[in-house]
Design goal:
Layout (H helix, E strand, L loop, with lengths): L2 H11 L5 E5 L5 H9 L4 E4 L2 H10 L5 E4 L17 E5 L2 H13 L4 E6 L13 H9 L1 H4 L4 E7 L8 H21 L5 E3 L6 H6 L4 E4 L1 H4 L6
Parallel strand pairs: 1-2, 1-8, 2-3, 3-4, 4-5, 5-6, 6-7
The chain binds pyridoxal-5'-phosphate (PLP).
Length: about 220
């Protein structure tokens, strides 16, 4: 099936409160433009340089989401245009995002990445660290960042029960954090293989790549 058919199929199955991020990492501009021409306006990338190149080349009504791990020294390359940074996992990173956003007179929306998977390889903060951060004076002094929710990645496994447990864990962390900060709205969880389950567990934002653009070829 074509990119636009894949996109329509997924979109027509989503509840109204769920936002679809089309994850276009490694894919050429021509593929992204097919999704754009089918109406998609939110794209997710996991490398800052690749996202910046695509931003330059593509229509300016696109919202660009950084979904990957962010190195502090590269924040400056996306501060001018990025709409949402999903992978914020430390105060130090948040402070750098704030500094770079300030240079461009912008406020950048961010999600706190929470470690919900058993795997060691996944990044993220603990629920406790997130709660400490949200209540800290240091955070309240950052005027150019907005934390609007949380993001998490489940373990890469065929064990549906485990993935479900991890998604429900993130939803409960979100509910707790929301009592500290009512600005929290977004739960970013769910990818091609597990987005339906994620939505059942309370996801409001799914990050879908291969089910739209086909399998990736890393070279
Ligand atoms: C690549 C990626 C996705 C999308 O993965 P698919 O399995 O292709 O849907 C989602 N989230 C993150 C953080 C990713 O790096």
């Amino acid at each position: 099936m074509s990119i636009s058919e894949n996109l329509q199929n997924i979109k027509s199955s989503l509840p109204e409160n769920v936002t679809l991020v089309a994850v276009s990492k490694t894919k050429p501009i021509s593929d992204l433009m097919k999704a754009y021409n089918a109406g998609q306006r939110i794209f997710g990338e996991n490398k800052i340089q690749e996202m910046a190149e695509k931003y330059e080349a593509m229509p300016k009504d696109i919202q660009w989401h950084m979904i990957g791990h962010v190195q502090r020294n590269k924040v400056k390359y996306m501060a001018e245009f990025v709409n949402l940074i999903h992978g914020v996992d430390s105060y130090k990173l948040l402070k750098e995002i704030n500094k770079q956003a300030n240079k461009h007179d912008r406020t950048i929306d961010c999600l706190l990445q929470i470690k919900i998977a058993e795997e060691d390889s996944k990044f993220g903060m603990s629920a406790e660290d997130a709660s400490i951060l949200l209540q800290s004076n240091e955070f309240s002094e950052l005027n150019n960042v907005n934390i609007i929710g949380v993001m998490g990645m489940a373990t890469f496994t065929d064990n549906k029960k485990q993935v479900e447990t991890e998604f429900k864990f993130l939803k409960s962390i979100f509910d707790n954090l929301k009592t500290l900060n009512s600005k929290l709205l977004t739960i970013s969880m769910g990818m091609s293989r597990d987005y339906k389950l994620a939505i059942d567990c309370g996801s409001t934002m799914i990050r879908v790549g291969s089910s739209i653009f086909g399998v990736r070829n890393y070279q």
